[in-house]
Amino acid sequence: MAVLLQIGRDSAAFETFYREHIERVQRFIARRVDDPYLAADLTAEVFVAAINSAHSYRPARGTPTGWLYGVAQNVVSAERRRQTRELRANQRFSGRRLLTPDDVSRMEDRIDAEAQARQLLRAMDDLPAGERAVLELVALDGISPHEAAQVLGIRASTARVRLHRARARLRDAAPPLAISSLADFSSKDIS
């Protein structure tokens, strides 16, 4: 916790925090994005945003990992809004930072590994926003419903109810492959 509060001022603290969380953040992004260049950019943006907002972290509101998932969710949401504006204006930005072939290969492997999670996300498109947010955090990102509640700023009981409703709706509507992704988290995860 103390490391998180120092990442904006201490490069050693940032390096420790980065090494501890980079894999989780990359998986979080790869579940939501299928372009390796964009995934790499968003991962970097998450850590830049974490540096800039580390002073706002409050230990009483949740774990550093939960807080970082909230930062990542905000970065991904901001990117979706930006893409929507871009599509409406029919403009394309071509200035993406250059990646080495090894970087692209690793990101493509990560994206391929998360293909089933992206299928589940597409199946979740029809869920109400609150239910979808809780389900994403619990089923795809592997955090507890209690931590998901902290990330989303809601009560734990509300998160559990939303999770239960989301799972029930998906059982009725989602493709079989997506439903098999839900088998990885069982009813015991709701408590």
From TrEMBL:
Gene3D superfamilies: 1.10.1740.10, Winged helix-like DNA-binding domain superfamily/Winged helix DNA-binding domain (1.10.10.10)
Keyword Transcription regulation found: yes
Keyword Nucleotide-binding among UniProt keywords: no
Domain RNA polymerase sigma-70 region intervals: 17-85
RNA polymerase sigma factor 70 region 4 type domain location: 118-170
Alphabetically ordered keywords of this record: DNA-binding, Sigma factor, Transcription, Transcription regulation
Segments crossing the lipid bilayer: none
Family the entry assigns: Belongs to the sigma-70 factor family. ECF subfamily.
Name of the protein in its database record: Sigma-70 family RNA polymerase sigma factor
Taxonomic placement: Bacteria, Bacillati, Actinomycetota, Actinomycetes, Propionibacteriales
